[in-house]
## 1
Amino acid sequence: MATNVERTGRYFLRFLETNGEMDDQDQFSRRLSSRIGELPPRVPFGAVPSPEDVTARWQTLPLPTASRDTLYGRLTAEDIATFTGHIENCLGAVQLPLGVAGPLRVNGSAAHGDFYIPLATTEAALVASYSRGAQVISEAGGCATLLVDEGVGRSPGFAFRDLVECGRFVAWALTQLDAFRAAAEHTTRYGKLLDMRTVVEGNHVYLHFDYETGDAAGQNIVTFATEAICAYIAERSPVQPRYCFLEANLSGDKKASAQSYLSVRGKKVTGEITIPADLVRRRLHTTPERMIEYFGMGSLGGVLSGTIGVQGHFANGLAALYIACGQDAACVAESAVGVTRFELTPEGYLYGAVTLPNIIIGTVGGGTSLPTQRACLDILGLAGPGHARALAEVCAGLCLAGELSLTAALSAGEFAQAHQGLARGALASAPAEIVRSCRD
Amino acid sequence: MATNVERTGRYFLRFLETNGEMDDQDQFSRRLSSRIGELPPRVPFGAVPSPEDVTARWQTLPLPTASRDTLYGRLTAEDIATFTGHIENCLGAVQLPLGVAGPLRVNGSAAHGDFYIPLATTEAALVASYSRGAQVISEAGGCATLLVDEGVGRSPGFAFRDLVECGRFVAWALTQLDAFRAAAEHTTRYGKLLDMRTVVEGNHVYLHFDYETGDAAGQNIVTFATEAICAYIAERSPVQPRYCFLEANLSGDKKASAQSYLSVRGKKVTGEITIPADLVRRRLHTTPERMIEYFGMGSLGGVLSGTIGVQGHFANGLAALYIACGQDAACVAESAVGVTRFELTPEGYLYGAVTLPNIIIGTVGGGTSLPTQRACLDILGLAGPGHARALAEVCAGLCLAGELSLTAALSAGEFAQAHQGLARGALASAPAEIVRSCRD
Amino acid sequence: MATNVERTGRYFLRFLETNGEMDDQDQFSRRLSSRIGELPPRVPFGAVPSPEDVTARWQTLPLPTASRDTLYGRLTAEDIATFTGHIENCLGAVQLPLGVAGPLRVNGSAAHGDFYIPLATTEAALVASYSRGAQVISEAGGCATLLVDEGVGRSPGFAFRDLVECGRFVAWALTQLDAFRAAAEHTTRYGKLLDMRTVVEGNHVYLHFDYETGDAAGQNIVTFATEAICAYIAERSPVQPRYCFLEANLSGDKKASAQSYLSVRGKKVTGEITIPADLVRRRLHTTPERMIEYFGMGSLGGVLSGTIGVQGHFANGLAALYIACGQDAACVAESAVGVTRFELTPEGYLYGAVTLPNIIIGTVGGGTSLPTQRACLDILGLAGPGHARALAEVCAGLCLAGELSLTAALSAGEFAQAHQGLARGALASAPAEIVRSCRD
Amino acid sequence: MATNVERTGRYFLRFLETNGEMDDQDQFSRRLSSRIGELPPRVPFGAVPSPEDVTARWQTLPLPTASRDTLYGRLTAEDIATFTGHIENCLGAVQLPLGVAGPLRVNGSAAHGDFYIPLATTEAALVASYSRGAQVISEAGGCATLLVDEGVGRSPGFAFRDLVECGRFVAWALTQLDAFRAAAEHTTRYGKLLDMRTVVEGNHVYLHFDYETGDAAGQNIVTFATEAICAYIAERSPVQPRYCFLEANLSGDKKASAQSYLSVRGKKVTGEITIPADLVRRRLHTTPERMIEYFGMGSLGGVLSGTIGVQGHFANGLAALYIACGQDAACVAESAVGVTRFELTPEGYLYGAVTLPNIIIGTVGGGTSLPTQRACLDILGLAGPGHARALAEVCAGLCLAGELSLTAALSAGEFAQAHQGLARGALASAPAEIVRSCRD
């Protein structure tokens, strides 16, 4: 076993080793220092993909021909046309395997019904695990889900000379809400300014504007709306900031943040299920008691490792659903925080709940109009206007399904086998128990 | 503006409103309560996709026909065959637009050269922004990158009757490292047990095992290896736990965690660039001073919102690269933490650095063998064995490019326009400045 | 250097070593296991201290006689009488050295004037350092301070059968605010219910009640007021919780919590100062530039170590002031979070700011009526009603003074010498520079 | 109820209101802006307290005479002499009521016996609550405690031109451990360098040095030792940093930090107790089941509020013990983090455990030699060399006692009454149940 010092040193020692010819630190310097040599061509910029544009790009750049065939060879002009407004410098498309889980019965305030859930992933066992969880939830009568809050924010920052100017600015800003709302809502048909929050840190003021964004995920809506507010401020404020920024990194955009629990970013949803003990035994191969034991140890494991909230792997289900359904996959970084809880009911049933404060999702805009993504939303029956809240509740139900299945697999000692059997792609070689767990 | 109470109540009031027929809380109860009605058919489980398997699934399930045509219609039997071991319950495939950024010059300890970077996303402006940042880095001589540590862990948990048993167990475990290593490395050709760490919390013991996993991301490797250690413990430990779990949620798997900075999960990389002021002005349309001002306000914005580390949007670049290159997209949740720093050098240049403690990445295994994903790795020149460390350094360089471009856009007041122009997909309608910023 | 494993094992190996007679793990077991032997007498309970009570306690318990003389020997019956309502099981009193720092000029919204600040501590260099900082602030014209928000909360928790019951309960609770306020304010002359916030986590509901508490720190006020609300709920709620608790650990009471930045706990204050460069040089022996360098490195040091906010040592000044002035010293745990920022102004001056979201402080109630504590408040001129907000602003100014002095000492390379000179108690032996730094 | 905007505005509106004569923002400006007027006298610096020194200070400064009588009137020259090396600018002393809790039976690896615990506080109910918990623990056979790790660190930071210089520096530093140790240990009789850890963040390197510090809390020891290492680096390093600082804020000094769980700061201790159900009922007036219910809700309450770890109020007991026993009270900020866990054993008993990663404590140095503080250590039997580890285990036992008593009070619905009865200082007026709970 390595000491901390040896371990710290490994990267450097390895570097020297793997560059055999380098026998001194000068070599290290040469390798890491700026170089002057000629650059290969810049990627020619193009915002409107077309077959000519894509073909020209492959020809201009020193990229592998085989890759072109794979990534671009089978795309039609119609395919390429659908990418307009979604990509710059287009090279073609990547393809991800798509599986389906379910049905997942959701008895929610917005979602109500039985859902087959499309999941795009390259990781074995993911779909099997979520599907098992979804089916168990459905057999137990379906999960209840409740959309608790929603809103997406932007946080422009304003730097002043001193606190006196901050005070004058805030005092003015507090009287301008109607004007701010008017300016903001002039830029958008769907966005509505919900609230403003003020953070004063020395001579810096952050104004946090929170919006409803209809059925869109809404990051662009809130950007444009807040820019309009900033323009109004620039024109009218009795005290001008020394400088300001449209977003000063307080909004939590694309980042896991502790503030999610107290406020909301996107949609905050909670969901729950109660499962009879015999169903746990039959379908999950373990007992409620054993799952509670796992929860007791795993939730403190999360706390001790410094996570924001405590949960198992919300990220798995969310990433697969987001990719399939045209959501912004980067938002997994912020959406995959939350809390999972398991308890034993007085009747000896298993009670499970998940709470996700930060689901960033939409059924219009973003990638939702792309053909395969739209087809996935159609599988859910949630494409287009009027469905964003339901989609958020389905996300919560899906995460609940995943937590159930993961916790059960760890409790039943099946976690490793499931991955072993399925990752090797051979059902025949999978342990009988796993096959059974998926098939049953 | 809504009061907290009104805001809290919105979800409930909205629920009642949007279900016009519901004039009392009984309706609410009926909607959220478990239902007894018949379930639609379970997804028939299938781990080995084939045309027959996929076709049967579409026929068995009540899914939209149009979706089938879109998601499955054009796939060949060969396409489907490549999905084996990557998906269960296969329905077909989703397609994401692919763009290319760069070149990005990396002068790293592992990566060394000029890289064109494939990015799969549905979000306008993402590729343009990263490409601009990459080009500026390259024109400034390239970024230096340094892989500082690596390792992937599993954390089995053991529950004992009391601290006395914990003490006996730990005392024994500390003498068994060679045996643990032998057991672990029996399961894997590439994994190496690096270290063991012990956490005692009352009568619970977590053993954290840290592994090198060669060029694989390694989650399966460490699962199987740790299972072998657990089996050895079950057989030999002088004191048996009341219960134990292969993973007790301490490893940070798929979760942003504060422990990343002190240890490592995956690959820990730092990267830096120094950019002359005139290059900042010419290509980023702002000044080093203004970008420092943003950094001063934005880094505290991150702190005040309770993020783990402070950065802008690592998640954007990582998600797009992970999806393109066959990485586990769920790992964006843990990888997208870190620190960005900008400073003014004594010469008035802009200095920028990023540090990512948690890059989970591989060039073998996972989705890296799928055709389009493999083609993307080929564009990078980093497919197959021997390239994982270089890929991690490219990730750091990419994040640095993104932070530069984002910070510059916010500093130059171009952030909203860039999104507006590109999201609407019409270069013609984009503000001239943005087109220039991308084209130049 | 020790490996992780050796290090992990040290505690156990040391245990065996330091108990030489123990040559096996049975000894370990015997030591840690419950013992059956007879217990010494319980501390006889007494809530009303009197000379008789204290004397009897020393006689009843097997405590050292010399300790009695030291802790109790010089106290009069009057002294003891003043302890009534502040201590149970009284043994006497401990004495802490008291120093004074200042003057600190505060130009605040509540505090306005020049303050001499009483600080009780046993740690050398603390008073000297804060006094230096305070004097520099005053010479620069005084710090501006702004009380930004205030409120103290309690968070009762209610567990229901399911989400349906949660929804019914919340729907009812949202209509009962006037009744809640009436119930709460019936228990207190000074407390006012400001706001209610609802957190739904599965079948758990947390209601967070926020109060103004006049000039008292307010923890008891909000406890009694919230108990009255809970009683009202128990009597009137249309749906009864399975169980509930007056405080369900969401309020952040006595704990550093990330939610402080978004809400408030106690008083949220920000303060700032701008210091000419020559004053920095003359009195702090360094330059604004060098202090900015420290800030750049130190603030990321805080981020990398996972603190809540980034600052140097708010705890030092707050603990010393809290103890001197009869505040609840345990509240240092929650109050000592916040943000420090240093910047260079366009004129080359040093700008510094601190923001503390969580100052729990009062000028009535708690320990403020004890003789020495009241005397310390009199030194500040802030004893009794009407002064709590000013005291909070003085706290912010004091923390700003400490951050200035600490940062300057680290920047000037004087940090170690200051401690060395002063801890050894001999001015003569202190490095001349330090003496100068304190004396000047 | 106030809207967010109204709430945000309160501070400003209040400011204008409470300064009735101010009818415009200019008044606000005048109040918060720097003032030019004359300053009152500086506190005359004095590091060696003596009656002459103290008397002169009171005469020189415009402080209240009555305060002098209270704070200084009864102190003898001998009293003042004992303060040497503990305070600057001495004014006298403050007095805190001292109570005693226990006995607390500790079956630890270092502490072993029955302890009466001195607690200095001004807050009613604190001693009563901890004493009740301690007695219950003792009646159940005593708590087991285990010191798991120890070490105190300093983290100097070094800024270089670029990553190349960082790499050269780290490569050199890794070979200098023996020299670093020699330099460090030359400054101290008790300190031992345990380990070095390296953090590279762009062109910044933090070296974290971890020390054992014998029976001292050790902050000064590690400061002086690390300064010697820095001097060695300044003399010998082949690459000189652009600048460096003795402490770059990575060590967690005086701050709650998430890194504590993975490393250690001070002493890391875990402790546990198992309590029969009838003892819970008889002495705590509740049941194990009800306490588990509280734990289930309270631990997630902590998670949702963003605390580091989950616990109730470690700060209460630690602050009272630290003040009584001459510890650095500011360290409550870092020590009061950790984890509490309650479970039901298979036999229906209550199992409770606490883990504190960060107890900063010593039995020599700091305030431990002051008369009343030394007397408190004598009550514990833990004064002087050889007792620091035992004192840390007693701290853990004390925190366990507090968590038990608090959780029980909340579970039994006695929390508010206990505070109400005891804060009003009249045993007669205390609810009978509380008196019973304390007396029994």
## 2
Amino acid sequence: MQGKATLLKVYLGESERYKNKPLYQYLVHWLKEKGIGGVTVCRGIEGYGADKVLHSARFLELSSDLPITLEIVEVAEKIDPLIQEICAMVPKGLVLTSDVHVYKHGKE
Amino acid sequence: MQGKATLLKVYLGESERYKNKPLYQYLVHWLKEKGIGGVTVCRGIEGYGADKVLHSARFLELSSDLPITLEIVEVAEKIDPLIQEICAMVPKGLVLTSDVHVYKHGKE
Amino acid sequence: MQGKATLLKVYLGESERYKNKPLYQYLVHWLKEKGIGGVTVCRGIEGYGADKVLHSARFLELSSDLPITLEIVEVAEKIDPLIQEICAMVPKGLVLTSDVHVYKHGKE
């Protein structure tokens, strides 16, 4: 993969669950099974979403529900068919794409 | 919100302050008051900015001044009116936008 | 720098090395020497790349090889000449660019 590609970014909460697993871990596993070439998961230190509840590493009681982001970079043909399923798995999250230009991907 | 939107990203230093508060915390609060639908704050482990001073989690003395990023995703009409005010609050930081396509945002 | 610019993002593994240094630290130093105006390095908590090996902060044995991202924002004329060299230094990683609009950069 080189040239035009799609960056898919998903924002969700660390405590969200899906099928008895943390949602972000479920998504990583699911994306790997779908043949997606890579996923990067980051944890934020603070944030709020549509419900306007502030989550922060500064608040002990909410520190286990920090913001999580997942990033996937793939050709559009591999990402587009998955977006609706991802949206359904992420009821409270944010799902977006942007156009990127890939110069190098893995061992190519 | 679905379709075309703007991702606003702000890069600043953890130790920057504004009105007696850490700047990034002030910004989160301020953006919430302005009706912005969500903010995600991340802390980096290393970096430098315009002054070329390297901040790193490896250096104890600078570990309380690590890079901080804020991400906001909204329709352009809600973000554009705030950008000049944000720039004024972030004297040493980097403020940028990019075009994104939103598939899902919160509980819609 | 204001107006159109390029965001360069590099994804690599924390344990990758280059010339006896952690690769991401080498890159930060190298980019600074090349006159790049700023770099932000983040560490993820989980992820996999082209080799499909899952790295996670949950697995002690792989926790020292978490995903690392570097972000650089510059005018295209300063980034473009560096991309092939960066790709050569990052054999297993992902290197991409996207278009951004910069409103503020450093002390301007």
